[in-house]
Amino acid sequence: MGLACVHCGEDCGNYPVLWNEKAFCCNGCKTVYQLLNENKLYTYYEIEDTPGIKVETEDFGNKFAYLDNEEIKTKIFEFKEGDFRKVSLHIPAIHCSSCIWLLENLNTLNKGITQSRVNFVKKEVVISFNETEVSLRQIVELLASIHYVPNITLEDTDKKKSKQQNKKLLYKIGVAGFAFGNTMLLSFPEYIKGSLGIEEKYRVVFGFLNLLFAIPVVVFSGNDYLLSAFKNLRHKIINIDLPIAIGILAIFFQSSFEIISKSGAGYMDSLCGFIFFLLVGKWYQNQTYQALSFERDYKSYFPVAVTRLNQNIEESIPLENLKENDLILVHNQELIPADCQLIKGEANIDYSFVTGESKAVRKSAGDFLYAGGRQIGSSIELEVKSKVEQSQLTKLWNQDAKEEEGKNLSKLIDKVSKHFTIIVLSISALTAIFWSIYDPSVVLKAFSSVLIVACPCALALSIPFAYGNMMRIFGKRGFYLKNSEIIEKLSKFDTIVFDKTGTITQTDILTIDYEGVELSVSELSMLKSLTRHSTHPLSASIYQQYSKHDIIEVQKYREIPSRGLIGEFNGIKLKIGSEEFITGHAALKLDTSSNVFISINEKTKGVFKIRNKYRPGLKELINRLSKNYELHLISGDNDTEKRHLRSLFGTGNNLHFQQSPAQKMEYIKNLRSKGKNVLMIGDGLNDAGALREANISISIADNIYHFSPACDAILEASSFQKLIKYVKLSRLSIKIVKMSFLISFIYNIIGLSFAVSGQLSPIVAAILMPASSVTVVAFVSLMTSVVAKRRL
Question: Could you say which of 319, 468, 527, 722 would form a disulfide bridge with 294 (CB–CB 3.0 to 4.6 Å)?
Answer without folding.
Answer: 468
